[in-house]
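As described in the Methods, two query proteins were run sequentially through the folding procedure within a single session, without resetting any intermediate state between them. The first query and its resulting structure tokens are shown here.
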Amino acid sequence: MSVLVRKADGLTEPFAPQKLLESLHRAGAEESSAREVLGRVEHDLYPGITTQEIYRRAFGYLRDQRKGVAARYSLKRSVMEFGPSGFPFEVFIAELLRTDGYTAVTDQIIKGACVEHEVDVVAKKKNEILYVEAKFHNAPAFKTDLKVTLYVKARLDDIAAARVATKAKGEMKGLIVTNTKFTGHAVRYASCAGVDLLGWDEPRGATLHERIVAAKLYPVTALTSLTRREKISLLEKQVVLCSALAADHTILAGIGVHGGRTQEILDEVTSLSGWDKP
């Protein structure tokens, strides 16, 4: 009989071994390693175990084997560690858009036909201008819902009206980005209203998760060799990406990391960015 697992939204479902294996493979775990972790997790199962507890145990087993794989496995939760302000998430999304060839700036005041609007990220590429609303959640159960898409659409319409009045050039688009999921109503309305969505598993084939992995744009919060205090210190200095640590080793000294730990952290950065290597 299958063991029932409690999900973040409170619902239960049977434990799916293949689902765990697939997530381990996506993180770069070799087949033998993934099977070993699965076996250890299955040994620990009990009725009503939460998905969070399953993640915690799988992550712990992975961390003992290969830190780079463990860091990639924890990517979703690493993004959730950005903090309550959500500002690092906006910076992170701007960096992600830059990897796609956009120029991007955060926290912009844009004039609409009726009022001014605070836009999280404004990105430009060729004749396209993209206005981005970044909705950060620090728990997987939270979803971006219909009312968010409604007010973002209204905001975009006001900005579009101002652009028409001033004869602004370029194609305008709107994008809502979340680090979790969208509700079904939000997805249907956005599709009908012409607002693009980017979530952890939306849209299929080009999800936020897939785009982060493809760009190898890993946050410093993914590093298992950093303490929580050190991660917070980096975020406070607006150091969001692992690549920043590789480019400037003095950043670690600036938060009190010295000696052998510096190399340990940099080794993990290398392991993380080189996920496609055996």
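Immediately afterward, the second query was submitted; its sequence and tokens are:
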Amino acid sequence: MKLSELEKGGEAIISRIEDESLLALRLMEFGLVPGMKIKRVGKAPLGDPLEFQILGFRLTLRKQDASKVILERP
């Protein structure tokens, strides 16, 4: 499953990032690394961007960027 498909209130574990550009590096700097638990907490009124909670802080990502992060269920 992709991070962009995670339902509100849903939690999952990050498996990998399907991108080898600077975007992948930036996402990893934000804490999106394999093995980390992430939770979807909200979205903008029009559905994009999405809001997540990871490592005790909230992170907002565009759907396009969130679709690069692959998850596994806990």
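The CA atoms of residues 6 and 40 lie 7 Å apart. We note this only descriptively and draw no conclusion about the first query from it.
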